[in-house]
């Protein structure tokens, strides 16, 4: 049965256990500007959590910290219970070896606002690059999986095309296929439709809905597509000023927000 307007695509709530992602006392500053302060939250394995809030509230920074594209100023991030970049040793915060951190991030895929495809490579070559050179897969195996992923995102006929020959929506679907080619346990999605023309948004969101319905990948999303957030999320978190103002199931956040700032924000975007 297709999801209703207020029901997540897969409404079964993920179980307890070791979190897929944990933020513990996380702080992030850019020079004198503090973007995140004393941030504590977890994402369960298989859970889909959407971060909403005004621009500049720290949402994208959260994703970039998990992907280690930004460095923590303080605190810790854990993936599957293991420290990602720093650990506590006898009360001292110690940075972990870069090699170990890189190995941890192979479990994580990220799709960006901009597509970041290699223009000199074909669509197929873009998708198999990391599985072959990072995961060590054979070119034959990586190619077979890439062709299956292109079928899944509706671009089976574009394998030999170059990204510059594709529409923005097609490029973003290739970027999603590229992220999935790494068989991630965690998928980070950063405003993946914000750079698209409005008529191209639906195809990309359709692919992501399919992933939500048919996989158990943990998803942490930043989006201004409120209907999409309502459809696919187990939990929605409202951010402002680098802090969580409130969180809860989509029904609660969208239909009965408790915080005045949340009500104002939703009235401006809905």
UniProtKB/TrEMBL annotation:
SUPFAM superfamilies: P-loop containing nucleoside triphosphate hydrolases (SSF52540). GO terms for molecular function: ABC-type amino acid transporter activity; ATP binding; ATP hydrolysis activity. Its EC number is 3.6.3.28. Keywords: Amino-acid transport, ATP-binding, Cell membrane, Hydrolase, Membrane, Nucleotide-binding, Transport. It is found in: Cell membrane. PANTHER family: AMINO ACID IMPORT ATP-BINDING PROTEIN, GLUTAMATE_ASPARTATE IMPORT ATP-BINDING PROTEIN GLTL. Transmembrane segments: none annotated. SMART domains: AAA. It is an enzyme of class 3 (hydrolase). Gene3D superfamilies: P-loop containing nucleotide triphosphate hydrolases. InterPro entries: AAA+_ATPase (IPR003593), ABC_ATPase_HisP-typ (IPR030679), ABC_transporter-like_ATP-bd (IPR003439), ABC_transporter-like_CS (IPR017871), Ectoine_EhuA (IPR014343), MetN_ABC_transporter-like (IPR050086), P-loop_NTPase (IPR027417). This is Ectoine/hydroxyectoine ABC transporter, ATP-binding protein. GO terms for cellular component: plasma membrane. Its main location: membrane. Residues 21-266 form the ABC transporter domain. Residues 1-15 have a biased composition (Polar residues). CDD domains: ABC_HisP_GlnQ.
